[in-house]
Amino acid sequence: MEAWIKAIFFPGFLFLLVVFLTIFYMERKILADVHLRTGPYYVGKWGILQTTADVFKLLQKEFIIQRRANKLLFSLIPFVAFLMVAALIAFIPFSEHSYIVSTSFDLLIVLALVTGMPPVFFYAGWASKSKYSFIGGLRVVNQMISGEIPLWLSALAAAVFYGTLNHLQIVHESSWLGFFILLPAFLIFVTATLIVTDRPPFDIPEAEQEIVYGFLTEFGGFNYAILVLSKLIELFALYSVAVVLFLGGFKGPVLPGIVWFFIKILGLYVFTFVVRASTPRIRMDQLLRFCWKVLTPLALLNLAFIILVKMFIS
Amino acid sequence: MGNSISLAGYTFVVEETKEVSGEDLGLLQEKLLQLNWGVQHPASGPMRLKVWVDGDEVVKVDPDIGYVLRLLEKLVEYRTWQNAIVNVERACFIDNFGTMTGYSIAAEKIAGVEVPKKADYVRTILCEGGRIVSHLIGLGGFIGVLGVHTPMQWALIAREKFLDAFEVYSGQRIATASIVPGGVRYEPTGKFIEKMISAVDFLEKEFIPRYTEVFIDNPTLKLRSQGIGVVPKEKAVELGLAGPALRASGVASDVRKDYPYTAYGELDFRVVTKEEGDAYARYLVIWEELIESAKIIRQAIEGLPEGEWRTKFPIKVPPGEAYVNVEWARGCFGFHLISDGGTGPYRLKMRAPSFANLWAMPEMMKNVKLADVPVIFASLYMCHGDIDR
User: Fold this and answer.
1) SS3 of B261, please?
2) Predicted local distance difference test score (pLDDT) of residue A293
3) What is the Cβ-side half-sphere exposure of residue A188, based on CA atoms within 13 angstroms?
4) How far is B46 from chain A (nearest CA, A)?
């Protein structure tokens, strides 16, 4: 298949939209299950089309920009955010042949793009000219910078172990031994992912009981949909990276590779949703303490351990 | 104040006109950010907190109330003795039985009416049912402000069973208008008792174990709420806290035990107290009271006597006045009722526990983080209807 066809259909933009709708639907259904409710039910079979209907509702809403807001920045931010996260997906091999590009710096580029997200969200808060958005923007920078260091360190642990930054090569070289050795790095990576993408219990920047909706407060309609989409895609991309680095990517018996990839991702998502349903949000200072005093030292120790292992294995 | 539509020509005034003076002006000049925490806010309910923040630290909190003012005390003056219950119960619809009981006892005191024993027991059952319903929402609301909506959903399922029982009893699920001066309005049928037992069964066998497993001793919850909004014992008395908030500071004050009314004197129950006085202690007090209330309902149903459930209450009550305290779900609720010999109350003053707790809140919110504001707010367990009345 031509690369540009892939970029449009699978695993490109259309695929991202489908993923967005599916994850949104699944989140609502699984949360409803924990809540002992039914969840989406009426639109489509088992309510499958409910999320689609919700997104279309957002699309037809009025385009409201607050009068004091920086209009250019305010309208540009959602698209910048979306482009940055969409670029992440290009480097993920969903199966042996379904990837858009494969370079020798895959992991580096992914991590660099993720590191580029905090300014975007901060400007989203800044351009809105609202108190809640501004506080949310500040919180997002605070939180993401503290989360990204453990994220980098644990991802690099895998890179050091396999001796490459290319995703495909990492998947090919992965084994059960590698899985067990990299287990601590995996746990740190998943925790850091939750922090970086501000999922509960680390959803401090958009804590609705404190600052309404953080940097998303002033956004509405299409802009809002795009921003939420890009946040969801960021989480999806980082989970895909976790599957590639630590869980053996598309490897697995009997079923085709792509199915295995999504089963693994599904497992991570179910974990996320159950955590969301049962863990209260923590406070900013507690999060900073946790990141800098627990997670970062652990990630450093883990990196040293991987280097030690690497010395004996090779 | 804010946006307004000028009367002539409906021009929309967007530009904000601020009326600040005195201390508030000083705060604004120090470049502190004033956040409006409320009226239209996910966790505030119909009231506004003006929160001045310096970065993430709260400098000052100023509650602004009156958004659900319904003049209940004044409306009572235009009702007859029996009809006034519909105004009294609307102090807070979540637990309406406590307020109706307090008003009825006060009216009976003035009129010198002796209530049948069965009515006392039915009132006890209903009051405790109301307390459970209210505490369930309190638990859900407390964890709800921390971003987890599971407890609220679970609590609503358990609450539904009690509402079913109230519906069987009075035909209404929320505003039941079922306790009147002179007894209770309806006969406690076998079906009502059956429904009540099945509701308590559901609470004890399904809700409590399920909830205990996840949300009691939850490490993250402890991290967030332990040591937050601490009120020592002396301070709690000084601030005039009421209800679960007072008992969480170690003061064993419970009108049900201290000055028993209805059938509480004959039943065996425990006053839940905690020593810590922080938000988590207040949460645990609500939780343990819920379990106690379920036991009280069981005892009261077992001891339910035979006989009449309502006596005749005079249309004209002789002049006099009475003050009655009841232990309502959110604390000690006082009724000062005056009669001038007419067909209705001359004046009713309600002393509301949530109002007392509200004015203790700015004191507790000094030098806390912004993220602690909703936690302290929810832990004080206030009802907006009760604050404004």
Assistant:
1) coil
2) 92
3) 30
4) 14
Residues belonging to chain B: 389
Q: Report, as an integer, the average pLDDT of A152-162.
A: 89
Please count the residues of chain A.
314
Among B14, B41, B147, select the one facing A281 at the smallest CB separation: B147
Contacts with A226 (C-beta within 8 Å, 6 or more apart), sequence order: A78, A79, A81, A82
Instruction: Inform me whether the C-beta atom of residue A211 falls under 8 Å from chain B C-beta atoms.
Output: yes
Q: Which domains does chain B have, with CATH numbers?
A: 6-64 (no CATH), 72-388 (1.10.645.10)
Which string of DSSP letters, residue by residue, matches B101-153?
Answer: HHHHHHHHHHHTPPPPHHHHHHHHHHHHHHHHHHHHHHHHHHHHTTT--HHHH
Instruction: List CB contacts (< 8 A) between A35 and chain B.
Output: 149-150, 153-154
Q: Contact, A282 vs B147, CB < 8 A?
A: no
**Which residues, other chains included, contact A254 with Cβ-Cβ below 8 Å and sequence gap of 6+?**
none
Please name the residue of chain A whose CA is at the shortest distance from the CA of residue B40: A212
Specify the pLDDT at position B260: 87
- Name the more confident of B213 and A97: B213
H helix or E strand, kind and range, residue B50: strand B48-54
Q: Tell me whether residues B42 and A286 touch, CB distance under 8 A.
A: no
Smallest Cβ distance to B149: which of A35, A135, A286? A35
The mean per-residue pLDDT over the stretch B39-46 comes to 75
Q: What angle do CA B377, B382, B383 make, to 5 degrees?
A: 130
A68 — contact with chain B (CB < 8 Å)? no
**Chain B nearest CA to A101, separation (Å):** 39
pLDDT of residue A96: 80
Q: Contact B146/A278, CB-based, under 8 Å?
A: no
Contact A281 B42 (CB under 8 A): no
Q: Which of B144, B220, B374 sits opposite A210 (nearest CB)?
A: B374
Separation of alpha carbons B243 and B365, rounded Å: 19
DSSP B310: B
**How far from chain centre, in Å, is Cα A36?**
27
Interface list for chain B against chain A, based on CB atoms closer than 8 Å = 14, 33, 35, 41-43, 53, 56, 143-150, 153-154, 157, 214-215, 218, 220-221, 223-224, 369-374
Asked whether the beta carbons of residue A36 and residue B372 sit closer than 8 angstroms, the reply is no
CB A289 within 8 A of CB A139: no
Phi and psi at B50, nearest 5°, equal -85, 115
Instruction: Give residue B350's identity as a one-letter amino acid code.
Output: M
Among B14, A257, B314, B11, residue whose Cα is nearest residue B3: B14
Does A286 lie at the interface with B, CB-CB under 8 angstroms?
A: yes
Cα torsion at A218, A220, A225, A226 (round to 10°)? -60
* Low-confidence winner among A295-309, B33-47, B200-214 (lowest mean pLDDT): B33-47
Distance from the B144 Cα atom to the nearest Cα atom in chain A, whole angstroms? 8
| Structure-token pair, residue B158 | 């358990």
**Is the per-residue pLDDT at B13 higher than 70?**
no
| Exposure on the CB side of residue B11, measured as CA atoms within 13 A | 5
The answer to whether residue A1 scores a pLDDT higher than 80 is: no
Q: What's the rounded Cα separation, in Å, for the pair B331 and B308?
A: 30
Cα B291 to Cα A255, B199, B295, distances in angstroms: 51, 13, 7
CB contact under 8 A, A209 and B43: yes
User: Which of these, B272, B139, B132, B134, lies nearest to B196 by C-alpha position?
Assistant: B132
What confidence tier does A150 reach under pLDDT thresholds 50, 70, 90?
A: very high
Alpha-carbon distance B241 to nearest alpha carbon in chain A (angstroms): 24
A289 at B interface, C-beta within 8 A: no
Q: Which two tokens stand for residue B233?
A: 């014992």
Residue B4 φ/ψ region, left for φ over 0, alpha for ψ in the -120 to 50 degree band, beta for the rest: beta
